[in-house]
Model the fold of this input.
Amino acid sequence: MKKVLLTLLAALGLMVGAQANTGGIAWDKAPDRTNDLAALQNGAKLFVNYCLNCHSAAFMRFNRLKDIGLTEQQIKDNLLFTTEKVGDTMKSAIEPRQAKEWFGANPPDLTVIARSRSAQGQGTGADYLYTYLRTYYADDAKATGWNNLAFPNVGMPHALWELQGKRTPVYETVSEHGHETHVFKGWEQLTPGTMAPEQYDQAVGDLVSYLQWMSEPAKNTRVRVGFGVMLFMLFMTFIAWRLNAAYWKDVK
Amino acid sequence: MADFKEISPNASAGAKLTNWFENRLPTAFDMYKVHMSEYYAPKNFNFWYIFGSLAMLVLVIQIVTGIFLVMHYKPDAALAFGSVEYIMRDVPWGWLIRYMHSTGASAFFVVVYLHMFRGLLYGSYRKPRELVWLFGCAIFLCLMAEAFMGYLLPWGQMSYWGAQVIVNLFAAVPFVGPDLALLIRGDYVVGDATLNRFFSFHVIAVPLVLLGLVVAHLMALHDVGSNNPDGIEIKATKGPNGIPLDGIPFHPYYTVHDIFAVCMFLMVFSAVIFFAPEFGGYFLEYNNFIPADPLQTPLHIAPVWYFTPFYSMLRAITGEMVLVLIACVVGGAVLGVTKFKMPTLFKGVIVAAAAVVIAMMLSIDAKFWGVVAMGGAVVILFFLPWLDYSPVKSIRYRPDWHKYLYGVFVINFVILAYLGTQPPSAIGERVSQVGTLFYFGFFLLMPWWSRLGEAKPVPTRVNFVAH
Done:
């Protein structure tokens, strides 16, 4: 029986395989700041200023931002552009029909975008977003003038371009097994942005952490409650184990 | 009806209350005895015997959490996705209820698969427990229907396209297929009508059937008594009081046992709920966080992990594979006609039946045979009690190579499950075809291989080591 169990376990190990790649470069690891209130607040500010114009977060209420340490007054004064009520959900001002006309696709809702973009073998949704928002480049062949390494032929223009500036990727030609392939080597800055590259990475890290937090605002509560539940279950298991032993000790 | 029992006026309040009820509802007291305090279960149950109780626990969890989810969920194609997020965000503790339900679905299949494997190991399906097994298989079938229809309700991309793919399979049935698919969907594509009927089935129809079957499963079990790891009938050796010598009252002995098992199960269950509710995309698929979009087909559509072994078998049946199956039918018919003595008429019937099956296989699309294979993989389980000809029930007393065969069966099932999660590939297709043949061969050839080899002597009393 042990052998059967062991082989079962070994077979399960096989299951941790990689899933198909959807195109685009390998993802960078996103910093996890979902417990860092200052980073989340900065991320929320960036989100409301740069994303919410075209994208909605239709299942996220503004007043939920109290969870990341903002007061209702702060939310009202600094973050409410499209609505009056702090209990409203984050709806964009854009007409879906217009959006479709301008970008070829309706900008997706961002409430749970960080959860939906995870992929087995590639990384979390946050990793994807962190890579995506940092790999825009100027491309005259595109109608918007922008293209992306993580999402080739993306419809969305570079919303953060003022911060990052214009860049273009530098490729190196590598000859491998007689084939010549282009390998991405780095970036060339064409026009500077208002932020230095390191600053920009930090800002995107905050924004992505905010998106990750927004995709599941209950996560921190969930983990905290989880520890309590596990402790309680450990205690209960001990009691149940002794109870079982007490009843069975006389069974011969 | 039992006689009215008087009780002394000096009895304690508790005894008086019990007496009051016993006189008015004696059935409940009889049932308590029959199913709990005087249900004698073999005392040598091992680890494998906890999964029945755990399945019942998970069923209760699913029903209770389901009731609360229905209070907030909206079965409407325009509102469903949002209402799930509403539960996750705005309903107090809604996230916990939802994660319990989504994790519970996977947990249900984990415990049920282990429960079924236990039956396979110790021959729990054999005489006189055939009905217990049949009810159990029916429960498994219901569970699959329940899970499939429940998975549509969050109205994410995977919900939508998974349902689309599976319902379209019914369209492969000859003659009535397209109409059948239309009847199931209630529309030409999966839509609001589909969502509404799946919701109705998921919350009312199937659970009712499921509960009835669970009652039947337990009644049949308690009438014949539980099997045990030694596969011995404990009722064959009774003491002077008519109680099996190797039996022990279910309550309190197995209730304390099960409480312990429940605690350990809840530890694992809570760990998943609180620390990994998506379980790496296996319990909650990432794509399902994108609202259903009828105009955008995902690149890769995979069912949830518990359906993937069967999904693999479905995909394994290609045009080539049908030819292999035809060869199997020919081989089987030739073997049947030449090897066994029977009247010429019978032989004629076999040859004619084989010819009809082959003609059908050649004329009907491979997709339909894929559906037949997928359904057959579940249906074949129903026949297990009449396929096993081993002289002993338990794996413990079977020839050693049976253990390896069962091991290979499990590994094969896991490999099929893995391949079902993956996008189609040439190698994966070949492997799943071999796996499918092995899966069916294991059952269809069981009347032959289960007789082979020398069974070990079976003791008259169970093996029991005091705790």
Q: What stands out?
A: Chain B has a mean pLDDT of 95. The longest helix of chain B spans residues 192-224. Chain B has 17 helices and two strands.
